[in-house]
Amino acid sequence: MKKENKAFGKKMFDFDGNFYTYTGKIFDLMVVSVYWLIGCIPVITIGASFSALYAAVTKSVRHDRDTISRQFWHTYKQNLLSSIPLTLIYGGVLFVMFLNIGILNAKLRNLFGLFFMVLYALVIVFFIIAACYVFPALSRFAMPSGWFVKLSFYMTVKHLPISLILLAMFAAAYLALLAQPALFLIIPGAVSCVASYMIDPLLDRHMPEEIHASGENCE
Fold first, then answer.
1. Are 207 and 141 in contact, with CB atoms under 8 Å apart?
2. How far is Cα 142 from Cα 87, in angstroms, rounded to an integer?
3. Is the whole-model pTM more than 0.90?
4. Phi and psi angles of residue 46, each rounded to the nearest 5 degrees, phi first
5. Which 3-state string (H, E, C) describes the chain?
6. Structure confidence by residue, pLDDT tens digits, 1-23
7. Does residue 157 register a pLDDT over 90?
C-alpha cells in the first residue's frame, strides 16, 4: 500500500502529472482573464475581447491547442473589425433599454410605467443571453453580422433551458465581482470555460451549411 501511495504521489507531481497540469490551467485562466479585461478597455472592442476569451479557453485550456496568449491575441485581432457592429448593436440596445427604465422610474409611478419597465427588462435579459451566444459564434464562424444576430436570437429561444442556466451563471459571476473585484483575476476565464462546455456542442449543431459541405474546420 505504501509503495502504491508513493507511486501515485510521484505520478501526480511529475512534470506532466495532474498537479502541474491543473495548476497550469488555473494560471492560464488567470492570465486570460487579465487579457480579457485589457481587451475591453477601449469599450468598442468588448465584443472582440469576449470572442477571444471564449476561443482561448476552449482551444488552449480545454483542448491544449496553442498557448493561451497566442490564441487570445490571434482571435482578438482576427475578429476586431467584425466584432464592432455586433458590439454596437447589442451594447446600443442595452444602453437604450437601461436609459428608458431610468426615465420611467423617475417620471412614471403608475401601471403604465411599470408595464414598460417590465417589458424593457425582458428585452435586456433577452439581449444579454443572446450575447452569450453571438461572441462565441464569432470566434468560430465567418458570417455577415446579420446572420450572427439571427443565430444568437434563434439559439436563445431554441435552447431556453441552457440559456437560463447561462444567464444565472453570468449573473452570479457579476454579483461576485461586485462583492470582490479581486476575483477579476479568475472569474472571467473560469466562467467562460464552464460556459464553453454548454455552448460549444450547440455551435456544432448550428454550424453554417457551407462549412459542413466544405468539411472545413472552423475552429
1. yes
2. 16
3. no
4. -60, -40
5. CHHHHHHHHHHHCCCCCHHHHHHHHHHHHHHHHHHHHHHHCCCCCHHHHHHHHHHHHHHHHHCCCCCHHHHHHHHHHHHHHHHHHHHHHHHHHHHHHHHHHHHHHHHCCCHHHHHHHHHHHHHHHHHHHHHHHHHHHHHHCCCCHHHHHHHHHHHHHHCHHHHHHHHHHHHHHHHHHHHCHHHHHCHHHHHHHHHHHHHHHHHHHCCCHHHHHHCCCCC
6. 444 445 444 454 454 556 677 88
7. yes
The CA dihedral of 23, 24, 27, 33, to the nearest 10 degrees, is -120
Cell numbers 439559439 correspond to 155
Residues in the chain, total: 219
The amino acid sitting at 175 is: L
Residue with cell 454550424: 207
- Type of residue found at 165: I
The x, y and z cell numbers of residue 199, run together, are 455552448
